[in-house]
Specification:
- The chain is an alpha/beta fold and 346 residues long.
- Helix content is 41%, strand content 17%.
- The protein has twelve helices and 15 strands.
- It has helices at residues 12-17, 28-44, 59-69, 84-95, 113-123, 143-152, 172-175, 217-224, 235-251, 253-273, 299-307, 330-344; strands spanning 2-3, 51-56, 77-81, 100-104, 127-131, 133-134, 139-140, 156-160, 179-183, 194-199, 277-278, 287-291, 309-310, 312-313, 319-323.
- The strands form four sheets. It has a seven-stranded mixed β-sheet, with helices on both faces.
- The longest helix is centred in the C-terminal third of the chain and has 21 residues, at 253-273.
- It is globular, with a radius of gyration of 20 Å.
- Bound molecules: pyridoxal-5'-phosphate.
- Residues 58-60, 85, 131, 135, 160, 162-163, 183 line the site of pyridoxal-5'-phosphate.
- Pyridoxal-5'-phosphate binds next to helix 3.
Length: 346
Amino acid sequence: MKTYAFPGIIDSDILKIGAEQIPYMRTKEFGDMNKESEELLLKFIGCAGGRTIIYTGSGTGAMSAVVENYVSTKNKAIVIDGGTFGHRWSQLCDYYGCHHVDIVLDFGKDIDYDELEAKISEERPDVLLCQHHETSSGQLYDLFRLSTVCQRFGVSLVVDVVSSFLAEELDMNKLGIDICITSTQKGLNIPPGLSIIFLNKRLNDYQFHNNGFYWDFSENLRNLTRGQTPYSPATMLYMMLNKRLHQIESQGVASVINKVHERAHFFRTLCKRYSWNIVASNPSYAISGFDVNRNGDIIFRKMIEMYNTFIMPGSKPGFFRVSHMGIQSEDDLRTLAEQIHSIERL
Ligand SMILES: *Cc1c(COP(=O)(O)O)cnc(C)c1O
């Protein structure tokens, strides 16, 4: 099997952990392992002095947690709604009754940063919710510009980096980001099931709201000071996470990110060859999202049936996404492009 969907092809040492017996987790060893994971995570994202919460739950759980515990303490949020995931912030604010104004963008389009600044100056929100990479289209936003505007108006910046962490450069302290969230099945390239909240050290004494039992920041943070979780953790995934973080540490974060960039560059030369249009105006390296020219209605199924290969369909006909996270070589990508093209010609 080949997969260019999330989490991509996983390293075999990580997979082996899944075949082992599961140790009891209320031990000093499990706690120490998680404390170490926290340290590595904070280092990789430039959040020295901050905290993490590692939840058993998918990325949306972490988004929900942020709205319950943090956004609910604010008067007004401004949401960048540039696709499925941006829209999810907006839905979560509705769900929890948080006042919000949405900036709705066309598919694959960048933010008009001057317009955003005007809107912030008029609306005076106290928190901005966005994605770094809107995975539904492949669009990458300019966090430096977002952070500049936020700092000018004293707006707290919250960024969903689920699909950009370890695919794009990112430094929370440098950018003045208060909260980031990610999950395990994208840049971390291990199975889905854990999500991670990064809290900037500026929030160390923040009075969060206690609006949801399972995701409660205070309760989770209290337990995590010993590396423990309030409820049963997906033990195996915490072990895979720790192993993966060590692998990244020994390869170097910059080199991990650089590999993603190289794969994306290479695949995009193939897109050009086959005249597949990259849709995003400023595409992230994390995925390539492109329009095919023919047979868009059968490509997804045929790739599975003919080649045992997964690519990701998109939210519009003829649009597909290929992830560049996970193990893949130039030969793999060349073969993938040839296979997609062969179905185009059927
Ligand atoms: C994948 C993803 C999520 C989380 O989705 P889950 O299915 O809940 O893991 C959130 N935001 C972005 C940008 C994503 O790509």
